[in-house]
Known about the structure:
Elements: E1 3-6, H1 13-18, H2 23-27, H3 48-61, H4 69-72, E2 79-82, E3 85-86, E4 97-100, E5 107-115, E6 121-130, E7 135-144, E8 153-157, E9 159-164, E10 172-176, E11 188-192, E12 202-206, H5 208-216, E13 236-241, E14 244-251, E15 256-262, E16 267-274, E17 278-279, E18 286-288, E19 291-298, H6 301-315, E20 330-334, H7 340-352, E21 359-362, H8 401-409, E22 413-418, E23 422-424, H9 428-432, E24 450-452, H10 458-474, E25 479-482, H11 489-495, E26 500-501, H12 503-522, E27 527-530, H13 540-545, H14 562-572, E28 580-582, H15 592-597, E29 602-606, H16 614-631, E30 637-640, E31 651-658, E32 663-670, E33 678-681, E34 692-697, E35 703-707, H17 708-714, E36 716-719, E37 725-733
Parallel strand pairs: 20-21, 20-29, 21-22, 22-25, 25-27, 28-29
Antiparallel strand pairs: 1-33, 2-3, 2-8, 4-5, 5-6, 6-7, 7-18, 7-19, 8-17, 9-16, 10-11, 10-13, 12-15, 13-14, 14-19, 15-16, 17-26, 23-24, 30-31, 31-32, 32-37, 33-36, 34-35, 34-37
Amino acid sequence: MYFRLNILKRSYSIFFRSVLLTGLGLLLLQCSLEAASPVEPYSSAVKKQETDFAAKWIASILNQGKGNLARYEAQIPFQFFIGKRSSREWIKTDNAKIESDRWIESVRKHRLIWKDSVSSLVCEMELTEFKDFPAFEWLVRLRNEGSGDSPIIHDFKALDISWNDPKGGVPILYRSIGGPASEIDYTFKTEPMRQSMWNDRRKVRMDTNSKAAFFESLNNVYIPNDSRPSAVWLPFFNYQTGNDGILIGLGWNGRWFTEFDHKGKGKTTVSAGMEFLNTKLLPGESIRSPLVLIAYWNGEPMHAQNMFRQLILAHHAPRQQNGDLVVPPVFCLTWGGVPAKNHLKTIAKIAEKKIPFDAYWIDAGWYGTGTVPSNSVFQGDWGPMAGDWRVNRNWHPDTLRPVSEAAAKAGMKFLLWVEPERAVQGRPITLEHPEYFYPTGNKKPNAGQTLLLNLGKTEAMNWVLDTVSNLIIQNKVDWYREDFNLDPRFHWNEADPPDRKGIAEIRFVENLYHFWDTLKERHPCLQIDNCASGGRRIELETLTRAISLCRSDYNCFPIASLEAIQDHSYGISYWIPLEGTFNINRSDIADSYEMRSGLSSGMSIRAVNPDLTEEKWDLLRRHVLEAKRARDYFYGDYYPLTNSYSSNDSWSAYHFYLPKEKRGMLVAFRRPKCDISSMKFDLLTIPNEETVWEFENADTGSVQKITGKEIREKGFEVILSNPRGSSIYYYHSLQKR
């Protein structure tokens, strides 16, 4: 077995019930303690056969070779229709005008251009290849160069390929639930592509209707047809065919669909794109498709997941001004409705007690003209103030600048929450410029009605750009936190003429990216936190520009389950290295079990009370130092050790490993109703040899030295004497690097 249990109180039958694994955790069981090749099968290390395969695929698209058409068939990996005509009638590999850039570090871009003589449409595919990964990505642009309106463009599949298993086996689809603010957020699912043992055909489609039906089937866990991109599913997938497969990622901050249609005998068609697009183009007008990423992998599915994590870090993660990756801070999280004098008192205490927070976070409630005291998210009249992005002088008479300056003096950056795309009717901007907002049918909006800013309108985008930019300057903001607590689909649908379905969404999404990019141009040191009722806006394009520091609003409520939060960490780590969460909304400083339940690369600790006891200040200091020490490991490869979703009578454990530095971190939880006091884990990152490894217990500081051979043959034992216990071990090789 890949790990063993030391069972003190119960029979061996508990072993099978407590450690029954699903998903990729089960795949790790394939490696026994006696295995001699621990690292390569599951690490992120790219293999030559993978890069060769991807290179041939790219070459076939560029008409520089035939590629392996038995695997993926279509050389042009997208398709759309103009009226009744398929784009494949005029978009082919051998008639493209191709412009290729030189390599810039590990990236090279190509532009493939076609012009349709019948419709006067110009199609441009921007193809990006990566030297350091067996991956490529593209987006498609269409432009009407005719003097009249184009025919209707529809059935636009930004991804449209076949992916076939030459051995005819049953493929497996790996995908994860998104962030609907529930216990099951980020659950990693493993789904064989068969209807039954008798029928090898199966179609899995993710679109508005199927997403709603999925949640309706989950025992009263129902999310309406939320069109934010990761409200139901993360737009990332791993499709295994035998001993290899493809990873797929989408970049689109709107409504997307994906379909995997296994027709039997290993033959699958895979398609994806913007869900509701049925539009003509006006003369000179252009549109773009979602971004599509494909990576090829060979070997173990967990190797694929780790390679995807590293690809995201390399090419879809925000950067600092010097080009380095953004480091998610450890925040002190506070509420914006709390008066400035209280913030200043808290910051002074943080400085006095030498609590090494990286940044000070002011969330909602700081704006507008509300007069009802608002000391938490559940109090005050801050909600109806959305859209009035002036600092509320009732709580902050001198703006927020004194708070940000005090934070800077205490060695902390400053984060400010804003929700610029949403406004409540009655706020000044809605009265002065009602044309900046999407229509609400044939009626004027009622007082208090929620409106969506029409980002697709240049004047509206310029207003919000100047408004947010001025807030950043006036209040010395280092981290701009953008929230989005609104499903935009109703507003988009209302704005579209009958022959222009999808055009409002396209313009909104295009200008959202432009808005963030322009903010960064104006404020080069600024970093962006992407929120949308938690993590409902996670996709490739936003990952490139921002970090989701609040991956789920589930944590906002005191009744939240710590074990569910552990599961959130467990599931999202299959895909995303840089993300964040915060401890549950309670008034006291959490213990280690609670804090570690939400451990992530970006960690926030709520509402520090300046009147804490010395004991609590010491505990807080330990939490912050631990979060900062653990942070580095989230950049490494991920190894799930158990998989016990929604179970309080089991263990949960995982570890991260930095292969170049030969060091790792193991995190383990013994849950409240678990009566198993110790477990032994096989750490696949450690070679089965006599090299000595040093393990440090983060709680006791005790150090033990053990050979790789002993760990691989006997396992590494973690003992937690009491239920509701946790442990962190940092380990590294003592072999000279």
